[in-house]
Amino acid sequence: MNSFQQNKKSKKTLFFLTVIILLIATGDIFSGGLIRVSLRDSVSLVNGGVYNMVSAVSSAKIFSSKQALAKENAKLTDELRRFSSYRIQNEILKAENEALRSLVNLQEGNVVGKTARVVSSLKSSPFSTLIIDAGERDGISENDYAVMEGGVVVGFVAEVGEYSSLINLLTAPAQKSEVLINGELVEMTGRGGGNALVQLPREIIVSENDLVLLRGSGFSAGVIGNIKSTPASASQDVYISVPFNIQAQEFVTVFENLL
Amino acid sequence: MRLFVVAVTFLSALFAPVWAFFLLAGFLAVRYPSWEVMLIAFFMDLVYLPIGGFFGIPFVITILVCILVWGLDPLRNQLVFK
Q1: Inter-residue contact A122 to A128 (CB < 8 Å)
Q2: Can you give the residue range of the structural domain that contains A248?
Q3: Domain contains A183
Q4: DSSP 3-state assignment of A179?
Q5: What is the pTM of this model?
Q6: In chain A, which residues have their Cβ closer than 8 Å to the Cβ of B52?
C-alpha cells in the first residue's frame, strides 16, 4: 500500500470514528446521560481497586528504610500531640457552634451523612468534578451536599449512578451558589482551582478568614482568602477559598439537601 | 511506539494532571492520524463532564481534540512526518 492509499484509509477511519462518537454523544444526551452514568460506574469500580492497591502497598511500607520509618514515627508522635490539642479546641468550638446554630436556625448537626471514597483525581478533571464510589444504591440523590474536612461543603451531587456519583465543586468555573457572608446573602461564582469570587458592596465590612456559609445548608462553603477593592469602585472583590487541599482528601461525606 | 503513547495517554486521562493529557494528545495528533485520542477525549467527557456541559457546551474535550486531529491533518501530511 502506498502512502496515498494509507492516508486515504486513515482519513476514512477518522471520519468513521467521528461519526460513531457523534452518534453515541447524541444517544447519551437524549437518554439523559445514561451512557456516561454507566461508564462512570465502571470507572469507579476500576479506580477504587487501583486506589485500594496503591494504599495497601504504601501502608505496607515495603519500600521504606529503617531510618525513614524512625523519622516518620517521630513525625507522627509530634502530630498526635498536636491533634490532641486540636481535639480540645474542637470541643470548645463545637459547643460554640451548636449555640450559634440554634440562633440562626440552621440544619441540625445530628443529620447523618454517607461517607464515600473519592475515586477520581481532581487534577485529572478539567471541569472541577469528582467521582465518588457511592450512588443511588447508597441513598445518594442529586443536589446532595458533598462535605469534607471540618464541615466544609466542597460541592454538590450533579449526577447519580447506581454505584457512583459525580460531584460538581462549588469552586468549578462559573458555578453559582448562594452564600451568607456576615449575614448578607450574596451570589458566589466559582473560579476553578479551589477558589470562588463574590462581589460585595463596599459598605459591607469583611476581613480575611471570615467564615462563608452556604445558604440553607448549615455548612461552611469556605473562608475569605483575599479582598480587593479600589476607591473608584462601588463594590469589592472577595475571594473565597477552601481552607484545605481538596486534592489531598480521600473521603467525602454526603448530606441530604433539605432545601 | 504509537500503542505505548496511546496507553500512557489513557492512563494520564485517569490519573495525571489534565495538561499531561493535552500534551500527549497533541503529540499523538501531530505524529499520527490518531483516532485513539478522539476516543480517549470522548471517554474523558463522559466520565468527568456533567450532562449540562462546560459553560453550556457539551463534550468540550472531544470537540477540542477533533479540531486538533482534523486540523493537524494537512500539516501531518505535508510538512511533518511524510
Answers
A1: yes
A2: 114-255
A3: yes
A4: strand
A5: 0.78
A6: 158
Contact predicate B79/B62, CB 8 Å = no
Identify any residues that bridge with A237 across adjacent strands, giving them in sequence order: A199, A228
Cell of A156: 454538590
CATH code of the domain in which A131 resides: 2.40.10.340
Q: Which residue has the cell 490519573?
A: B15
Q: Which grid cell sits at A104?
A: 440562626
Among all chains, which residue has been given the C-alpha cell 459553560?
B55
Distance, first Cα to last Cα, chain B: 17
Q: How many domains does chain A have?
A: 1
Q: What is the pLDDT of residue A160?
A: 92
Place of cell 477504587: A48
B53 band by pLDDT with thresholds 50, 70 and 90: confident
Phi-psi region of A150 (alpha: psi -120 to 50; beta: other; left: phi over 0): left
Cβ B14 vs Cβ A43: under 8 Å? yes
CA distances from A137 to A95, A101, A176, B48 (A): 35, 31, 28, 21
Residue A148: pLDDT over 80: yes
Count of A–B CB contacts within 8 Å?
A: 97
- Closest residue by Cα to residue A154 from A251, A74, A222: A222
Which residue of chain B has the CA closest to A24? B42
Residue A100 lies in a domain: no
